[in-house]
Amino acid sequence: MAELIPEVEWDGVLEKAKSSKRIIIIGEVDTGKSSFAKYLIKNLIQREPVCFIDSDIGQSSIGLPTTIALKIYKEKNIEENQYEEVTIDFDKIFFVGFTTPSISPDIFLSEFTKASEFAQVLNIKTVVDTTGFVSGEMAKRIKLEKISILKPDLVIAFERKGELNHILTEIKTETIILKPSRNITPRSPIKRAEYRMKKFKKYFKNAESYAISKKFLYETLSGNIEGSLVGIFQEECLALGVIESLDKENLFFLSPPIDIRAVKKIKLGKVNLKNLIDENV
Ligand SMILES: Nc1ncnc2c1ncn2[C@@H]1O[C@H](COP(=O)(O)OP(=O)(O)O)[C@@H](O)[C@H]1O
Ligand SMILES: [Mg+2]
Q: Rounded to a whole number, what is the distance in angstroms from the first to the last CA of the chain?
């Protein structure tokens, strides 16, 4: 990852963020949201713990694609995994199952509500990163809904040229509008897909094979489900898995080491990782 170059106006925003309880960062893809979130957290934790909700289910920074990730930063120094191309570093994940909220805004928002409620209970400063889905009515509805769920006292909006206007005009919360940094390296859709694959590859690197009774399945499976991504739950999401096969009684899946006896539910996602699994064997 390229070295982050803070912009001059970020200092002022940081000051404002110090006295805010909940902060949400919005903007199109490649406007520097995640980099700015990192800058904020790094500076804010010098004073107090910060809960970070990475709700970008496509280009997750700390979490895994298809999930909303949450991490509580307490240490005065963020560990910089500078030599790693992709970072996976979260305390909790909320399984959404797909990589763009437009697939099912309701599922996305319901998982976002769970993450927000968790942060609400922690009662510490919270920073939220979001997806770059901002154009059109549906994107607007999702962003406004997220704001009404989180109840931020500060919105930070990265805007190139009017693309957030339709959303910003409806936000009642104090909003700071920033210009995206000139140092941003844009990523093509192919690069973004590759990034997701790298995350999954890393996550499933030491995956093991498990069998579980089909009665734990949340929905009935049909068709060719080999390679399908699943969320593995106790009450909360424990891990992600990939379906290997199915027989009369059991479902066979790969996942990072888990306590299989703790599993109470398996939920099907809308992503297929068959290629990734084939490469691994
Ligand atoms: N201020 C900055 N200085 C240097 N590089 C930056 C800066 N802001 C963003 N980048 C780089 O630009 C790319 C996109 O930024 P990112 O923060 O991931 O955007 P977003 O989260 O809005 O998609 C990343 O590779 C990031 O490292
Ligand atoms: Mg981002």
A: 29
